[in-house]
Design goal:
Elements: H1 2-21, H2 29-34, H3 41-52, H4 55-69, H5 74-102, H6 108-115, H7 119-152, H8 156-204, H9 208-216, H10 238-250, H11 256-264, H12 268-293, H13 314-319, H14 324-358, H15 376-406, H16 412-436, H17 442-461, H18 468-488, H19 495-502
Helix pairs in contact: 1-8, 1-14, 3-8, 3-11, 3-12, 3-14, 4-7, 4-12, 4-14, 5-10, 5-11, 5-12, 6-7, 7-8, 7-14, 7-15, 7-16, 8-12, 8-14, 8-15, 10-18, 11-14, 14-15, 16-17, 16-18, 17-18
Length: about 500
């Protein structure tokens, strides 16, 4: 316990110290939200990866899907690396950086408002982002607190409150730059931690070959007379596995807190380097998490009060037999993954509410003359006021998420499915196509907002007749035909306005 406490205190002290160090760079809106658009490839790549993978993955997803699909759940990690990281950087990195800088966009709702000439789109997008980031944040709190409960024997409620307070401190102090610097430190811990934990767990099971043999001897849930499904290439339910891969991999391209990493990176050369770094990071961390979870059936499951398996307790149960030093490492691993994701989520939510709802400045398009500009002194005062409001909203957002986390309505994986399904279902298609296709119309963006949010909410109100994971995957993929079809039959934006926005790609 002494080792665990000392390591955790050192870790938390470093996080807060980075927040204090970065405080001077977080006094303007661009500095607080985007790190001055001057964040290098290593920090950006690690910020992307650590925001992507949190306790939701390590505790919730690795436990639940490792139990359901066995070793084939490792495909989820591979999909996350190839689609969620490599393709995301290739498809979105350069174009997002150039266009958002060209039209002076700081948030994803701001992009929709300026790119499609509609302040109403900007307002509605910010409300969607704020509302549906909350269940994801609650899921992260829940996951990290279960590991703390296992490692320190501290009641779940106290763990949730402690984590929320510490995250608030360093984000409020240092903004995005502090978040990115801490993400890099946390990412190093995650890389070292996941490799060490996998080796320790397999060693406890007699080695890799023995563990796989034991897994292959476990009968299928659907047909107890059949063994080997949990050690096969595609597992007992390939179609269910595919839905998880789509949700967790494709979703990153439509999430405000993920896409925002491309806004702040320094230049195109940094994007190329960041692509490689981020992909390698995802292969190790995501692949390792799901690979580890695939051996969950070798341990006795924890049964909840309702008589069902407590999926969120599977991974903690796997780790309780490890030596104290390794448990301390696991706690730091999950703490690192979760605090980086929490920081990204609360910063995205507060900046969206401040810039797209409370201070909704009307900007001129590139090439137009901005009217009614104010002097530098007043402008600086307004900028500082916006930063103060964002800091207040960070506290507000954390409190709401904390209330949900103290009484979570469902498993961690379902919380994330609802959040990612609504957000990426609404934003993915219009954002991606809006970067490449001049013909996307405002009506098509509205239609996709209705499609993504509507499908997720209706499914939830009906008691989830479609599994939230599969529903989220359907929402994401279905957004593309919705945007394309509606754009073909609705009024186009003025050609000269669109040409001015796309001029950034000609440089």
């Amino acid at each position: 316990m002494f080792i665990k406490v000392i390591l955790t205190i050192i870790f938390l002290a470093v996080m807060v110290g980075v927040g204090i160090y970065s405080h001077k760079q977080a006094r303007s809106v661009d500095g607080f939200v985007l790190g001055g658009r001057a964040v290098g490839p290593w920090l950006s790549a690690f910020a992307f990866g650590t925001s992507y993978f949190s306790a939701v993955v390590f505790v919730g997803y690795a436990g639940q899907f490792g139990w359901k699909y066995g070793l084939s759940s490792a495909w989820i990690g591979i999909g996350n690396a190839v689609i969620g990281s490599l393709l995301a950087w290739i498809i979105l990195g350069r174009r997002t950086k150039l266009m958002t800088q060209h039209i002076e966009s700081r948030t994803m709702p701001d992009f929709f408002g300026t790119r499609f000439g509609s302040q109403s789109l900007r307002v509605v997008a910010s409300i969607i982002a704020f509302v549906f980031l909350i269940p994801y944040t609650a899921g992260v709190y829940s996951g990290i607190s279960r590991l703390f409960e296992m490692g320190f024997n501290i009641p779940y409620e106290y763990c949730v409150i402690i984590m929320s307070v510490l995250t608030a401190i360093y984000v409020i102090l240092g903004g995005y730059k502090a978040t990115a610097m801490n993400d890099f430190i946390q990412g190093i811990i995650m890389l070292f931690g996941i490799v060490t934990v996998i080796a320790a767990v397999l060693n406890a099971q007699g080695g890799f070959s023995t563990a796989v043999e034991r897994l292959a001897s476990i009968p299928s849930d659907a047909d107890p007379s059949v063994n080997g499904g949990f050690a096969s290439w595609f597992g007992p339910d390939p179609w269910g596995l595919l839905g998880v891969i789509v949700l967790t991999s494709l979703g990153t391209m439509g999430l405000p807190q993920m896409v925002g990493k491309f806004y702040s990176i320094t230049d195109e050369a940094a994007i190329r380097r960041g692509t490689v770094i981020s992909t390698v990071f995802a292969f190790i961390v995501a692949g390792g998490c799901y690979f580890l979870g695939g051996f969950g059936r070798l341990y006795d499951p924890v049964i909840a009060a309702n008589g069902k398996i407590a999926y969120d307790s599977i991974v903690p149960a796997m780790l309780t037999t490890l030596p104290d030093v390794l448990i301390a490492l696991v706690v730091l691993l999950v703490l690192s993954a979760s605090m980086s994701t929490l920081a990204s989520l609360v910063l995205t939510s507060s900046s969206t509410m401040t810039l797209d709802l409370i201070y909704r400045d009307k900007k001129a398009l590139p090439g137009e003359v901005e009217e009614g500009s104010i002097d530098d002194v007043v402008a600086e005062r307004v900028e500082r006021r916006k930063v103060v409001v964002m800091r207040v909203l960070i506290v507000f957002f954390i409190v709401i998420s904390l209330m949900i986390a103290l009484n979570p309505p469902t498993f961690i994986a379902q919380l994330m499915g609802i959040s990612w399904g609504a957000l990426a279902g609404a934003f993915l298609a219009p954002f991606m196509l809006g970067l490449y296709w001049r013909g996307v119309t405002p009506a098509a963006v509205w239609a996709c907002f209705i499609w993504g949010v509507g499908l997720t909410v209706i499914n939830m109100l009906l008691g989830n007749p479609i599994n939230p994971i599969n529903c989220g995957a359907i929402a994401m993929v279905g957004g593309f035909p919705v945007v394309c079809l509606v754009s073909l039959f609705t009024k186009k934006l003025p050609r000269e306005d669109v040409d001015r926005m796309f001029a950034c790609y000609n440089k």
